[in-house]
Amino acid sequence: MQLNYKVFGQGEPIIILHGLFGMLDNWQTLARKLAEHYTVFIVDQRNHGRSPHVDTHDYGSMAEDLRLFMESQFVLKAHIIGHSMGGKTAMQFASHYPDMVDRLVIVDIAPKKYPAGHQEIFAALLALDLAKAETRKDVEEQLKTKIPEAGIRQFLMKNITRQPDNGFQLRMNLPVIYRDYEKILDSLDIEEAFEGPSLFVRGGRSKYVAETDLELIQEYFTEAQLETIENAGHWVHAEAPKELLASLLTFLSK
Hints:
The structure is a single chain. This protein has helices at 28-34, 59-72, 85-96, 119-127, 136-144, 150-157, 174-179, 181-185, 214-220, 236-239, 241-252; strands spanning 5-8, 13-17, 39-43, 78-83, 101-107, 160-162, 168-170, 194-203, 221-229. The protein is α/β, with parallel strands linked by helices. α3 (85-96) links the parallel β4 (78-83) and β5 (101-107). 37% of the residues are buried.
């Protein structure tokens, strides 16, 4: 599978993996800043953005996607940054292919099973009648009936794109993501602990990574550090980009 990607800068390689319902554009601003010091690849994971839509969506498959992507780019080893679902992909990859990971950064996720928490988003997306929408504003008005938060609607609207016949379509493979949602929430199949340098960054206003998760994290990532960015929620890269960038540059340059 050939993942869709963009690349910026030059220097040691960094690969950034987005979260559920996201795409590479979510990380483009931060990637350009990192590209002042590194070669930065941002990729669309399978069933998201402009990457292929396929009938499987699990972390073993997504880790394999990353391995094949690195081989296609002749990247033998890279710093890997992953947010949320992308963080779980990165953890799975580091466990299976430790020699291909230089430094590992996981943003606001732990290697544990999570309870379902995206029901409203799924309900809104599954209820969309894109055939009735003539403008992007029409699509947003449909989302608004189930998602009152403007920020979440704008995040989801990035997935709406025009078709050649001037209609609209979703960039994500919603049926497969919805079907395999439990696999996205599930704990990871980690065979061996990753012993390389690891930084786990959590948002101070997020509930995704609790203090009690540190023991589990360090069981699988023996050199893991946990850092909290107090003024951020789950979308740390969007809510506190300067603080996250400073943290990344400090960790990656050690």
